[in-house]
Amino acid sequence: MNKKEYPVSGILAAGLLIAALLGVMGIFYQNLQEKLFTQAVNNLVVTTQSDKLYFDQIIQNRLYWLETIAEISDVPDAEGQENWQKILNWQSVDGMRFGVADARGNLTYAKQAVMDISDREYFQAAMQRKTTISGPLTTPEGEDSIVLTVPMIRQGEVQGAVCAEITTTALGASLNNYANPKAKATLVFTPQGQLISSYAGMERYATIYEMLETMKLKSDDLVEQMRSEVLAGNSGTLTYYNGGQLRLLYYEPVGIQDWYICSLVVMDAHEKILQEMSASAFGVLAAILLIVILLAATGVYLILYFQRRVKEAQKDPLTGVYTRLMAQRQASRILKENRHTLCACLFIDVDDFKTINDHYGHDEGDRVLISVSRVLRESVRSHDIVSRYGGDEFTVWLNNLKQEQEARDIAQRFLTRIDQQTTVHISVGIVMVSPQERDYEAVLKRADQALYQAKQKGKNQICLIPAAPEEENL
């Protein structure tokens, strides 16, 4: 080889080495970018699903409260002296107001004049004995809201309805205060984009799609793609820039009507890492190892953190026992897997709990519920299921029983310890579940009937209903 060719060969080798190094760095950079994005999506999926559980809990709690009011309230008689007048005035707060309608559709809101809702779909559905959740409606004040409606039934006839009107911003405040509002934001919307749960700033837009169309997107058809995916019932992601910041949005069905929930998070950490890596080749190479370690540690931390948040969402925030939804899932699994053992479902409520709330306030009522739930947890076995069914009602699912006397003994233990450790009494309805039974709702209904019979016997009582005959469970 000619000596003059040495420099050329050296330059070519160096160029090839630099090109190879740049190629490796480019591939690594691209792979790292994809991994960072995937991790961000996975984390956002977990938080969104946790928020979805919490949103469902918000709606179900409101419905349970309405069902309670529907049961205890006087039927509207236009005299203005019904017992619910004070209750509605007391419960109505900013962003949420309650009302009671008579059978003709004359609705009285707390501190409001009577209005005619006879032509509203939610009222007409209530008159057909249906509990309803309306889509977004515009209030006279010009703010969007949804209406929850529960029929008021007396002697087998619908005599009216109890309504709760909740603004989209009030729902959004409850939902977004559940997690750190600075870290992300969460919205609930219809497939058409109308907002069910909103937050400050969204009032400028009629739909979520209108908001997204004002952002900097990679292509003009991304919003239409999202709209098509939502209408098809699919979940998905979308990225955009707002104020120079990259944002990631994830959406999926919320499980109520055809509504969707979406969470969006600012991708500051993601953008910062990529900018630093592109600034200097040596800086990128030196930072890769540190970033991978930090990302791995952060990923594990975030996964554990959000797993803990999901687990917390399974527990009632006040009492710490399982929520109604989680108890149903676990009890249904027990019924499905229960082949050879006897089980029992206990339905429990606190005697005269409304009197405690009325005389001593809700703080005292909360302390009573916490004390009762603690006694229930401490009085059962580790594999038994204790849940707050709603309000002052609890359920306890006992499995692997040898005989029904065990269930009665545990119930008696409840009564004794409640009497010793608290200032209240409870009533307990017990229903024995045979190995052939599979229907969760049927078992719960029988347990509720047992509780009713215990109440009929007086306070601080137990009523046990034996397992249903085998032929009824086939």
Description:
The protein is α+β, with helices and mostly antiparallel strands. The chain has 13 helices and 17 strands. Strands 1, 2, 3, 4, 5, 6 and 7 form a seven-stranded antiparallel sheet that branches. Helix 10 (353-360) packs antiparallel against helix 11 and helix 11 (362-378) crosses helix 12. It is globular and about 95 Å long.
Number of helical stretches of at least 4 residues: 13
Poorly predicted sequence stretches spanning 5 or more consecutive residues: 2-6
Beta-strand content estimate = 15-25%
Q: What structural class is derived from the secondary structure elements?
A: alpha+beta
Distance separating the two termini: 92 Å
Brief digest:
The chain is an alpha+beta fold and 474 residues long. 48% of the residues lie in helices and 23% in strands. It is built from 13 helices and 17 strands.
